[in-house]
Write a structure and sequence with these properties.
Order of helices and strands: EHEEEEEHEEEEEEEHE
CATH architecture: Alpha-Beta Complex
Radius of gyration: 17 Å
Helix content: 10-25%
Largest sheet: 5 strands, antiparallel
Number of domains: 1
CATH superfamily: SOS response associated peptidase-like
Number of helices: 3
Shape: globular
Structural class: mainly beta
Distance between the termini: 20 Å
Strand content: 35-45%
Number of strands: 14
Length: 210
Amino acid sequence: MCGRYRDAGTWHGLVEQFDQRRIPIVFPDPGGAPNLPVNLDIRPTQDATILRAAPGGVELVRARWWLVPHFHRGPLKDWRFSTFNARAESVRTARSFRDGWRERRCLVAADGWYEWTGEKGAKTKWLFRPRDGAPMMLAGLWDRANTADHGPVESFAIVTQPAGAALNAYHDRAPVTLFGDDWRRWLHEGDPADLLAADDADRFEATRAA
């Protein structure tokens, strides 16, 4: 699963990464410098940075990590389903995610994610990052719900998949990670189902996290 992740990136770093892939960030104005807080431990229900398709490129927005689907009309607190993750095996058919799969995929800005091992009370926290330092994004879906108490709420889920052999020692699931040209495909291709295949687990290194 993905229950915590980190985003230590900067605005200028994002602009450069997307420019290298000829995917312009059209909002906010690339000439500006929005305040993107570094967050080394992002948790469900917190706001975080996502990038989604927009005319002429992508737009960067802050959204709530824990997807509340568009069909929810009650108070925000009444949505209690665990929709901060979307399973790759059912993302195309699950009611909360199927519209997002077709129409509202996004990239979740991240440079690593966390898992824990060990017994309760003595767990070890591990940070997973690409061994080669390559820029990555997490595969996500976003939605917008008109809630009864907070009005319009934009939120997202991270897509997860079976972890693969090397990562199974830490957890049996992992986020879907995207590199390079896969960013464009995830946002713009009609059905990028092949991107849901398990990663080469050796691509990531695990280090103890504080």
